[in-house]
Amino acid sequence: MRTTVGIIGAGPAGLLLARLLHNAGIDSVVLEGRDRDYVERRQRAGILEQGTADVLRAAGAGARMDREGLRHDGIELRFDRRRHRVDFPALTGGRSVMVYAQTEVCKDLIALQLAEGGPLLFEAEALAVEDAGTDAPRVRFRHEGREDVLECAYVVGCDGFWGVARKAIPAELVQVFERTYPFGWLGILADVPPSHDELVYARHDRGFALLSMRSPSVSRLYLQVPDGTDAEAWSDEAIWDELERRFETADDWRLERGPITQKSVTPMRSYVHEPMRHGRLFLAGDAAHIVPPTGAKGLNLAVGDVVTFARALAHRQETGSPELLDAYSETCLRRIWQAERFSYDMTTLLHRAPGATGFEDRLQLARLDRIASSRAAETDLAEGYTGFSFG
After folding, report:
1. Which of 73, 89, 288, 308 is the most exposed place for a label (fewest CB within 10 A)?
2. Annotated catalytic, 193?
3. d(CA 211, CA 198)
4. pLDDT confidence of residue 41
5. pTM metric for this prediction
6. 204, 273, 278, 297: the active-site residue
7. Is 299 left (phi over 0), alpha (psi -120 to 50) or beta?
């Protein structure tokens, strides 16, 4: 099998890249190790930056998002029983975010790819990327019980942290930067309408809490818990009680309870792999970088990567110049490090570290009070949250 771009992974990054290439008249093949049902049910973050929503619309994949997604024009910060709303459009020249689950993005892109795009092979396990440093890289994979080879002009690894693409870059060329946090998020899905119409980020002496949503009838909520916590060790009643404590305000706001349908614990880490390119192998998304979920950047960073690659390859096809492809890693990393900084700042602003002192508590409150009282500080948060340029 032969193609111009071999894409490993049919998450939102790989699927969107296939769509962008199709629209540019460039052929591709997508290999996905899981079956279609798994990909369309895989639960991940659901906050789309302004730029991500715009890219999906331009790619022809935004109709259902605009119909069913929830546009949010701000977030609420809670601390010291106070409430402060950050108004995104007022601070950023009209930018906002969209609440639309990653599972739904994948469903939309899969439908488009199967109807109009190139081959999308489910249950096609990528085994290795070979000859990445040459002009003819290959992806060895297993599909329908036999091994095969996909010969490519370029390979893009959208196969996540545990995928094979990153392993094809020689270790002596690699620098890794990472941080592991001593806490995680206990997350729940609950069949109850959200208790607030925008996301609520709460800093509390007992730990962080986040009120989010999947839809007008399904709430998504999180609690900061110690690293290694077993989700099943928390009863439903204990979870709701703790959420109530951490979201407490000085007014009459109340948290609505409902049946919890899912609970899990998400670890927190920051990770960047440099470079993101070796020869004709390019890394995108979690294959190259991970952020803590506090800043809602993971999916959006992956979109930035594939937009950068698609533009660079189209430029090469149109002009013959490899300039943008050669700059891929550097271009992506500028945005990635800004997102890493933003996510780290949000995490340390809102989470209480184990053993934190009274001095550190007061600093957190001072930082939050600065955001609530300074338009400049508030604007910096709003610009980071609604997204950094793909350029």
Report:
1. 89
2. no
3. 8
4. 87
5. 0.95
6. 297
7. alpha
